[in-house]
Amino acid sequence: MLSLVFAAAFATLSRFATAHTAAATEHTQEPFVGWTQDDLDAKWGTDWGFTGISTFAHLPHTRCLQHPETPYDIAILGAPFDTAVSYRPGARFGPRAIRAASARQTSFRGYNPRAALNPYREWATVIDCGDIPITPFDNALALRQMTEAFTNLAHSVAPRENAESEVVYRRKPKLLTLGGGS
């Protein structure tokens, strides 16, 4: 008796499926052209404090080692390197932890009343360059990778208005390294 009920239900469902397959194949996807880039930026361009990729203080992210032509005044660069430790402890997790801890900082909340300035909106173009890809298996290779990364970034240029500045310290970009060795 139960098998007859299942057979009847299967027959009914297969008739519905057959009836709807022809209609489903007639639809085509039209390209969406209803929004301009300004509309998309206004609607989707702002991240909340708890969304987006984790950069230092919600700064813009640029892979500086892959894009050395990007001008900046101050670059945040992670060096996730440690030695002589097992998997979980160690300084290799330092850059990620420091970025997570800086999540409260934003350009909106960066005003310092004692100094009367907002370091995120003053003269400097500050970006987060991500992390140096460092091997955890060979200390000599890891040191060479870090040295090459710092050497490459030493040839970076500041934005034109600061590279031509009368203020000497603004002419050359600076690096702030997160992490290091243990």
UniProtKB/TrEMBL annotation:
GO terms for biological process, alphabetical: putrescine biosynthetic process from arginine, via agmatine
SUPFAM superfamilies: Arginase/deacetylase
InterPro entries per the UniProt record, alphabetical: Ureohydrolase, Ureohydrolase_dom_sf
GO terms of molecular function: agmatinase activity; metal ion binding
Segments traversing the membrane: none
Highest rank taxon of the organism: Eukaryota
Keyword Metal-binding in annotation: yes
A Pfam match: Arginase
Region forming the signal peptide: 1-19
Sorted UniProt keywords: Hydrolase, Metal-binding, Signal
Family: Belongs to the arginase family.
The name this protein goes by in its record: Agmatinase 1
Lineage, broadest ranks: Eukaryota, Fungi, Dikarya, Ascomycota, Pezizomycotina
